Amino acid sequence: MTKSIELRDLAIGYKNRQPVKVVAQHIDASIFSSELTCLLGANGIGKSTLLRTLSAFQPKLSGDVFIHGQEIGAYSEKALARLISVVLTERLDIKNMSVHELVALGRSPYTGFWGKLTPEDHKEIDKAISLVKITHLTHRMVHTLSDGERQKAMIAKALAQNTPVIFLDEPTAFLDFPSKVEMMQLLHRLSRETQKTIFLSTHDLELALQIADKIWLMDDRARIHVGTPEDLSLNGDLSNFFARKGILFDKDTGLFRVENDFDRQIRLVGHGQRYSMIRKALLRNRILAERNAPSYDTIEIVENRILLSIENQPQIWVDTIEELLEKMKNYY
Ligand SMILES: Nc1ncnc2c1ncn2[C@@H]1O[C@H](COP(=O)(O)OP(=O)(O)OP(=O)(O)O)[C@@H](O)[C@H]1O
């Protein structure tokens, strides 16, 4: 694991406006190879601006960006294309191009003016396609692919570019949940297997906190907090960040929880998964169910059944949480 990108007192933003718009400043941080680093932050906070600045698509306001020890501005465009590949998420309107042809575009920094592919280029293209596990799609037309498949093809193109650094802007957007997980795991595996530096922006907090090696958290005071998900959790950065009404960051699990308010309480007797699920379902209905609740009413888990005892009412047996909620409606 070596430092491949170093930012020193970097300020990013837009000079073309008066006054100059500073999106983030005083950024001192490094990105390492063989690691997956995820950039998190609210909408409009500046994630794309940072990615664009690090990709040299837009000028920085001040400070330095060192990539492999050299300031980004000192690289020629051609040298940068062999150093950094960028995967954007826009749904590109690619017609009449096969997956193989798309991935082959990744070789353009190496091919001559006519884009003629050498055996070496073909080897890299096949390798890239196989790394993201879409060999069976090689000859499909890109516009016939699903969002997830197209996303993988775009990543294969970046891999074929064979750069030590890959930036991705929201690679998990548009994907269903299992595909998001698969995509993050794929990128994490690639960072390990290919020793690449992989830096991506995402809104998938839970996933990033579980899979990323490092997190960059952009806050609304134009600062960036950097660390392992666990350190950011322990030092309170994550809780502060998400301390909005209704969202709790649970330091014990390192995950988020939606905090439901309650206005009634009921005693819940039992344990295990059924206990947690009843508690969860009732909380969603503004009822707090727990062992020591100050209530004469009780829900008891008896083997696979649930016994509801409301004060001065006949006891009721139910089998599912849906039934329980239905019965409780009469009293709560
Ligand atoms: N070309 C531009 N000129 C001036 N301001 C811009 C320009 N592009 C973006 N901004 C502003 O810079 C800020 C950061 O935008 P950016 O797109 O980087 O946010 P983001 O974190 O990527 O947001 P999202 O999660 O919604 O994609 C926003 O306030 C945005 O309005």
Automatic annotation (TrEMBL):
Signal peptide boundaries: none
SUPFAM superfamilies tied to this protein: P-loop containing nucleoside triphosphate hydrolases
Alphabetized Gene3D superfamilies for the sequence: P-loop containing nucleotide triphosphate hydrolases
Keywords of the record: ATP-binding, Cell membrane, Ion transport, Iron, Iron transport, Membrane, Nucleotide-binding, Transport
Domain of life: Bacteria
Topological type in the membrane: Peripheral membrane protein
Compartments (UniProt record): Cell membrane
Protein name (database record): ATP-binding component
Organism field: Proteiniphilum saccharofermentans
